[in-house]
Amino acid sequence: MEVHVMKVGYDRRWWGLGALALCMLALGFDMTILNVALTTLSEKLHAGTSELQWIVDSYLLVFAALLLLAGLLGDRLGRKRMLLAGLAIFGAASLAGALSGGTGGVIAARAFMGLGAAIVTPLSMSMLPAIFPAEERTRAVAVWSSATALGLPLGPLLGGWLLEHYSWASIFLLNVPIVLVGGIALALTMPETRDPAAPKADGPGSLLSMGGLVALVYGVIEAPVRGWGDPVVLGVLALAAVLLAAFVLWERRAPHPMMDVRLFRDPRFSWAMVAAITANLLMGGLLFVFPQYLQAVLGNDAFGTGLRLIPMLLGLMAGGLTTDRIVPRTGHKPVIAAGLAVLAAGLGWGAFTEAGDSYGSIVPWLLLVGLGCGLSLIPAMDALMAALPADQAGRGSGLVQTLRQTGGTLGVAGLGSLLSAVYRDRVATGGLPAEAAHAAHDSIGGAVAIAGRLHDGALLASARDAYVHGMDAVLAACAAGSLAVAVLLLAFQPGRRRADAAADEPQSTHEHVAP
C-alpha cells in the first residue's frame, strides 16, 4: 500500500502528537467525570432521575450517531480543519454547560459536547499516518491510545477533587483551557490532510447509520433499567437491527459509500477490530462495576475512589511502553494475544474477591488488568491503522471508533444486567418496609442509604456481599471472554509474514497532504 507521509520535523510532529494526546485525555475523562457529579447536579439543579439520565445519555447518543459521518467529512473537507472545528464545538459546549442554570441547558450542552467529541475522536486518530512513518507509528498510536484510556479512570479522580473544592460547573470549565491549548498547538504543528477522491455525501447511508446507531445505543441504555424483555426496548432494538442491516446493504450497492465494507474481508483488520472491541469492553466493564465497589463496599468517597484506580493507570502505562519495544520485533499478533491473556489472568484473579478483602489485596490484580489492557488495546489500534488504506484514514477511523464505542456500550449493558441479576438474587430485604425494600433491592447505593437511615447492619452486610458476588460474576465472564478471544486470535489472525505480504500489495490512493 502506497502511503504518503508528510515530512514534518521530528520535534514538530511529536509536539503535535502531544497536543492530540492532551485533547484525547480530556475526552477520555469527560466520559466518566460526570459519574461522580450526578448527586451534586441533582441537588443543585433539582434534577430528577429522568433528567440525570438524559444529561448522561444525550452525549452518548450524539457521539455514537455521528462518528462515521465525521470521518467521511474529514476525508473530504480536511482532517485538520474538521478536527479544530470539533474542538471548538466541544469547548464552547463545555463553557455553555458551566454557565447553564438549569437541566435543559446542561442536557443541550452535553449533546453538543457529544457532537464535538464525535468529530475529534476519529479525526485525531486519522492524523497519525499522515505525519508518522511506519517505524514510528506504533509509538505514536501507543501515546494516542494511552491518553484516551488514561482519561477514563482519571475522570472520577478529577471530578471528586473538583467537586470537593469548587462548584459543579468546574467539571465543565475544566475542558475549556485544555481544548484551547490543544487547539492552538494543533493549528501550529499539524499539517492539513484530505482525500480529494473521497465519496460525496451519502445521504441515505448517513440517515440509516445515524438512525440505527441512535436506536441501538438508546436500546442498550434503557435495557438495564426497563429490562431486556420490555416492549419498548425490544421495539427499539428491532428498529436498530432493521436500520443497520439496511445500511450495510445500501453501502454494498451505493455508488459513493461512506463505509468500505471490503475492509472486513481483510483478517488483519477484522481480528484487530475484535481485539480492540474486547479490550475496550472489558476495561469499560471494570470501570462500571469497580468504582461502585470502592465506594459502597469499601466506603471511599469519589476522590478516594479515583486515587485507588491509580494501579490500573500504572499498569496501562507500563503496557504502552512495552508494546513500543516489542511490536516492531514480533508483530502485532503475539503481543495482542499475550495482552488478552494477561487481562484474563487479572480479571480471573479479581473474580475471587470477597466482601471482607482489603484494598491491598486488590492492587496486584488491578495492575495486571491495566498491563493486559495496555498490551492488547494499543497494538490492536496500531494494527487497525496499518490495515486502513491511507486515503480512507478519516472514514476508516470513524468506522473503528464506531465499532469500539457501540461494542463497549453493548458489553457494559450486558455486564450491568448480569451484575444486577446476581445482586438482586442475593440481597436480603426481608422485614423492610415495601418502599425501603424496593430501594435496597434496586441498587447497592439504595441499600447503603437505607441501611444508614435505619441503622441496619445486617442489610448493609447483605448488600455488600451481594454486590461483591455480582462483581465477581462480571469479572469471571470478562476473564472468560478475554481468554476466548486470545485463543481465536492466535488461531485465525494472520501472522507477521502474511500480514506483511498483504500490506505490500499495491493499493491506489489519492491522499493529499498540505502543510
Automatic annotation (TrEMBL):
Gene3D superfamilies in the record: MFS general substrate transporter like domains (1.20.1250.20), Multidrug resistance protein D (1.20.1720.10)
Organism: Actinomadura verrucosospora
Any one cellular-component term (Gene Ontology): plasma membrane
UniProt signal peptide: none
The protein's name: EmrB/QacA subfamily drug resistance transporter
Keyword entries, A-Z: Cell membrane, Membrane, Transmembrane, Transmembrane helix, Transport
Domain Major facilitator superfamily (MFS) profile residue range list: 16-497
Bilayer-crossing regions: 14-38, 58-75, 82-101, 107-128, 140-162, 168-189, 201-221, 233-250, 271-290, 335-352, 364-385, 473-492
Tagged with keyword Chaperone: no
Major localization listed first in the record, in broad terms: membrane
InterPro entries xrefs: EmrB-like, MFS, MFS_dom, MFS_trans_sf
Keyword Transport found: yes
